[in-house]
Specification:
CATH topology: Chondroitinase Ac, Chain A, domain 3
Number of helices: 2
Largest sheet: 8 strands, antiparallel
Shape: globular
Radius of gyration: 27 Å
Helix content: 10-25%
CATH architecture: Sandwich
Strand content: 35-45%
Structural class: alpha+beta
Number of strands: 16
Length: 229
Amino acid sequence: MNVETRMSFRRVLIPLALALVAARCSDQVGPPSVAIQQPHFLRWAGSSPPQFTAIGALPGGTSGGALRASLSGGLSLSQYTATFWAVRGEQRSIQINYVSATGDTSWQFLRLTTTDPVYVPGVGDLAPGDSVPITVTIDPYTVKVSLEPTGLVFGDPAQLEISYGGADGDLNGDGVVDDADAYIESQLLGLWYREGADSDWERIPAVESLANKSFTSQLPHFCEYAVSW
């Protein structure tokens, strides 16, 4: 093979080699898939399921197997569910208390206050004086609640206050309460929400009270909420 032929052959091979290298790099160096990070949900303390009582819920009766608390607040929630009526133009609220494992003490876990429900999905706009039943369901494993009907819209936001005291200080779930938990509480902990099971969890604005171990937030509509980090 003479010099001119070798040079011509080389001119053909070099672009081909570069193309193959580029193709191989594009297969290996493309943008990595990023997994959506789930928040760290706080778990209730103790080995037994938590217990709650409710004030302001519908009196007596059952619905779907869920025991509803009385207006006097004396009944416990067997299925972690309580319902109350929200009325447009009137302040209505429900308070759910966390009962200690020994059953001798309790404190406020959740308080939900509404004055201005304006739109109910599947029903439409509410006129002043119209009412809608609101159901609070507590997760039995983590400090998480769902508020229904999902998508209920408010003119003046509803106010949700939710406490994480039931985690008993062990915020990272490692079985001990130490400086790591104190750091999580002061720097990382927040109130999160998601629109539905297929949606991502996102942090929302909320005011933390370290004294009450709680977060308070204004809710323009209903979905699922959790204290997480």
